[in-house]
Structures are given as structure tokens and as C-alpha cells.
Amino acid sequence: MNENPMVPDLSHPDENDRRALSGVAMMGRAVTPGEIDTSHGAILYLEDVTVSFDGFRALNALSLSIDVGELRCIIGPNGAGKTTMMDVITGKTSPDSGKVFLGQTIDLTRMNEPSIARAGIGRKFQKPTVFEQHPVWENLELAMKTDKGWLASLRARLDRGAQARIEETLSLIRLEGEARRPAGELSHGQKQRLEIGMLLMQQPALLLLDEPAAGMTDDETMELAALLNHLRGTCSMMVVEHDMEFVAALAGDAGKVTVMAEGRVLAQGTLDEVKRDAAVVESYLGR
Ligand SMILES: Nc1ncnc2c1ncn2[C@@H]1O[C@H](COP(=O)(O)OP(=O)(O)OP(=O)(O)O)[C@@H](O)[C@H]1O
Ligand SMILES: [Mg+2]
């Protein structure tokens, strides 16, 4: 029985609820960025990271660093190792060798997926994973409360601060008008924004987004770019994407873009600079 109409009734979770639950349970409570030592300016630091699958090097001495507050776009051909890199950062895949640090001191290679999520790294997968049967508002509520365990969170009453945060997030992801609608009724673009909102409820220090614009209409894509641009500075972001208009909207004239190919960084610079790079044209953009 669900006596409090403000909390979702997940006493009989369906298949989709289970998937969404495993996603938010993974996140746990994020530490505030202040707890991560970014005194040298980097939120994320990878050095000489190698990952082999049956002898094939998906990552080949990859070195990369993201500044705190930065929104970094990563581009590169299929198979370049972009998703594998995110797998390594989030603890899904252990590297054969190399360093992976959150800030100066948090060695991610020694941590498992849940503890990396709790340390402040949120990850958005390509397919939106939300609680389809439950209203948008409850999706955000549930995402915020997983530090107490999701069962406890269902029983917990919302305090005013929490309500305010949900409202803020709703307006940020531009779903104020959809708060009471079941998430399953949302469009693909709205679901993607909801999932980003769910990640934001955890106050991540670093957000990883793997092809967030895939499958979106042009309008949804530009709306997503506006959202991420708006978030700039509140958390650091790494965005992997093939849609070059989306990348242009995020990188602007001065933002740094990293081009990966064959498991390592091929080029890095402003979008204009990498577009003019002969090796980049050869391996990716010129195709
Ligand atoms: N679990 C795995 N087992 C074996 N090979 C894998 C595994 N995961 C990735 N690979 C291989 O590693 C390489 C890098 O894959 P990855 O998915 O990281 O590329 P990507 O840059 O994300 O590509 P895309 O743009 O297509 O998403 C590919 O050749 C892929 O086939
Ligand atoms: Mg990929």
C-alpha cells in the first residue's frame, strides 16, 4: 500500500522500474565538489591508460585531463574507445595499466562502480532510464534520496528544501509542465532531460554523457545543448557525441574539443583547430 501520494509505489517494481532503480541506487550520495581535491585545477586525470580485449587495445596509452568546471566534448570515429574510456572512469572496466584520478587524490582504479558514483561521478547512458510508470516529480524525488536506501526513501517525507530542489531541477530541465505525468508518456528528448535531472539531484562533481543527442530531433538536440550550457560551471562535464552541430553548440569558439582515435588522443584544441588538423580530417571528419 502506498499511503503517501508524494512517493512512488514501488512495492511491485516492474522490469523497467528495476532497471531505473539499479541506475539510481548506483549513484548514491555524491560528495560535494569541495570534498574533491582540485587544487591543481583538474577534476579528472587519465595517464597512459591501456585496456585490452583479447589482445586488441581499445585504449592505448590514453592520457587526458579535464579542468574543474569544464564542459569537454569528445569526438572520434566508431571504435575509437570513447565508451571504453567512460567504462574505465566509472569502474565498469578495469584498465590493464595507467592512472585514473578524480581530482588530485581519489584513485578511481582502486574503487568499484558504486563507490565511484558516490564519490561524485554521474553517468548518462545513451538509452534513457527512468521510472516509466511514475510521475516525473517522483522520478526526481527518488533519485535524490537513494543515500538512505530506496526503500527508506519511499517512506520518507519530503522536507521543504527537498521540494525546492526538485522544483529547481524541474525548471532547469524544462519539465515544470510535466511534473505529474508518468515519465513513460514523455517524448524521447524529455526523457533524456529527465534522466539528466535525476543525475543532477545527486549533485555530481563530474557528469559523463555518452551520445546524449542520439535519436533526438533537431529541436530536442538544441534544447539539450542549451541545458548543458546552462549547467556549465555548476559541475564538470564530459560529453561524447557524433552530432557536430551539437558539439559546435557546446564548444563555442573557445571550448576545448578532444578527438580520440584508436584508443588515444589524436588531437585537441578548439573545434576550428581540430577541424583543420590533417590527421583528424583523415581519420574522422573527412570521411
Ligand atoms: N567488452 C568488450 N569486449 C571486446 N571488445 C570490446 C569491448 N568493449 C569495446 N570493445 C572494442 O573496443 C573498441 C572501442 O569500443 P568503444 O565502444 O569504446 O568505441 P567508441 O569510441 O565508443 O565507438 P562508438 O562511437 O561507435 O560508440 C571497439 O573496437 C570495440 O569493438
Ligand atoms: Mg561509444
Any overview of this molecule?
With 287 residues, this protein is an alpha/beta fold. The chain has a domain at 70-87 and 120-285: 3-Layer(aba) Sandwich (Rossmann fold). The chain is 36% helix and 22% strand. The protein has helices spanning 15-27, 82-89, 113-118, 136-144, 150-155, 160-172, 188-200, 218-231, 244-251, 271-276, 278-285, and strands at 42-53, 56-67, 71-75, 97-102, 106-107, 121-124, 206-210, 236-240, 257-261, 264-269. The strands form two sheets. Strands 6-7-8-3-9-10 form a six-stranded mixed β-sheet, with helices on both faces. Strands 2-1-4-5 form a four-stranded antiparallel β-sheet, covered by helices on one side. Helix 4 packs across helix 6, helix 4 packs parallel to helix 7 (188-200) and helix 8 (218-231) packs parallel to helix 9 (244-251). 42% of the residues are buried. Magnesium ion is lined by residues 82-83, 210.
Task: List segments where confidence is low: pLDDT < 50 over at least 5 consecutive residues.
Answer: 1-8, 22-33
Helix and strand composition category? alpha/beta
Discrete helix count: 11
Distinct ligands? adenosine-5'-triphosphate, magnesium ion
How confident overall, as mean pLDDT? 86
CATH topology of the domain at 70-87 and 120-285: Rossmann fold
Order of neighbouring strands in the sheet with most strands: 6-7-8-3-9-10
